[in-house]
Specification:
The termini are far apart. This protein is α/β, with parallel strands linked by helices and about 150 residues long. The strands form 2 sheets. A 4-stranded mixed beta sheet has the order 1-3-6-5. The chain has 2 helices and 8 strands. The protein has a domain of about 100 residues.
Length: about 150
């Protein structure tokens, strides 16, 4: 009888040790909890606009000093940015604060994104158009101009 009692005490002691040493399940499993900070650390990036043939790219001109970047990610090589102007005829690039890429917008090998124009629209709330000329990489012919138009 003493042997039975000592085995029972040993069994109960083992159960208590196992229960105390195991971690409680998280969400029904034993996966560790991951704490994610909700404090914003990243800054807002300007809209990334991709060049597509024969399509006007639209920016919201109701936002003062709206920043933007224009990318080329397709199969067309841009030759140059031909003109920057507003609806009233402003063509001063410094007034519109448009900075053209030093690369001239040529698509690098491998089809990587290339910034061809970036800047801030700050002249007015009227439409601002950036047009450029591209060539088709397959036939090496100059294409029609492309525009960014504020809505």
């Amino acid at each position: 009888m003493k042997r039975h009692a000592s085995l029972c005490v040993l069994f109960c002691f083992t159960l208590i040790l196992v229960a105390c040493s195991s971690t409680p399940p998280v969400n029904g499993s034993n996966t560790p909890t991951v704490h994610i900070s909700t404090t914003p650390t990243a800054t807002l990036m300007p809209p990334k606009l991709e060049v597509t043939p024969n399509t006007g790219l639209v920016l919201d001109c109701s936002k003062i000093n709206q920043k933007f970047e224009l990318y080329n990610s397709g199969g067309r090589d841009l030759l140059w940015v031909s003109q920057v102007y507003s609806q009233s005829g402003i063509t001063d690039k410094s007034l519109l604060k448009i900075k053209l890429s030093p690369t001239g917008g040529t698509l690098v090998s491998g089809g990587h994104l290339v910034v061809i124009a970036q800047g801030t629209i700050s002249s007015s709330l009227e439409p601002v158009i950036i047009s450029f000329i591209y060539k088709d990489s397959a036939i090496h012919a100059q294409g029609i101009s492309q525009s960014i138009i504020c809505k």
